[in-house]
Design brief:
By secondary structure, this protein is an alpha/beta fold. The chain has a domain at 116-238: Leucine-rich repeat, LRR (right-handed beta-alpha superhelix), CATH 3.80.10. It has seven helices and nine strands; from the N terminus they run E-H-E-H-E-H-E-H-E-E-H-E-H-E-H-E. The protein has helices at 18-21, 43-53, 74-77, 99-110, 154-165, 185-188, 210-219, and strands at 6-8, 33-35, 61-63, 89-91, 117-119, 144-146, 172-174, 200-202, 227-229. Strands 1-2-3-4-5-6-7-8-9 form a nine-stranded parallel sheet, with no helix packed on it. The longest helix has 12 residues, at 99-110. The protein is elongated and about 55 Å long.
Length: 238
Amino acid sequence: MTNIFKLDLSHTNLGGCASLWAPPLKKMKHLTELTFIGCNLIGEDMAHIAESVSDISTLIDIELSRNKTLCGCASLWATHLKRVKRLKKLTLRLCNLIGQNIAPIAESVGDMPTLTELDLSWNHTLGGCASWATHLKRMRHLKNLRLARCKLVGEDMAPIAQSVSDMPTLMELDLSGNHTLRGSASMWVIHLKGMKQLKNLRFTGYILTGEDMRLVNMAFKDNTTIDVEMDDMSVSPS
């Protein structure tokens, strides 16, 4: 057991009883990746998991995607994340996260100086209510933030861009697959200019119109250090 490096417990319906199965994780001293996709985990489970893996110095990647039972109660479980002191990547895709979940997540991630990548993609319930974006700036050490396919709308872009502008180490921002942004660039493109530290900004997935793309290119015309990824409109999506 001590020689296990990657442990995948996905789709095992472990929710609600981590006090019983999490303690043996302590013995996996060389674990680097831990995956719990679709396990129906609840807030109480996270305390037991975090306590059990907190002393595993090699653990750098935890995936909690498709645990929709974590939505709406991040104030109960997010604080335990900071106990995993050397974590570099945290994935929370398809967890039905809502705006009020982001504050406690950002607070915890803000206290985890080694965590550089946060994936919040496919949380459709984040779209249309981006007052939560003001909390992103608390994660000042992040290098990669993924908000792909979150059903973001034009009104969401200003608070997201303003927070990203205050995240000095952020190099990559993924906004791909947010088709609800299509045709709205005139509302938010001006706010992109503040994100001068970014090296990669992703708008792929045929989410922009030709006019949107023109406006985005204009916004970064004087920034030669950023790679803005957009689709070739001469190629039809499959």
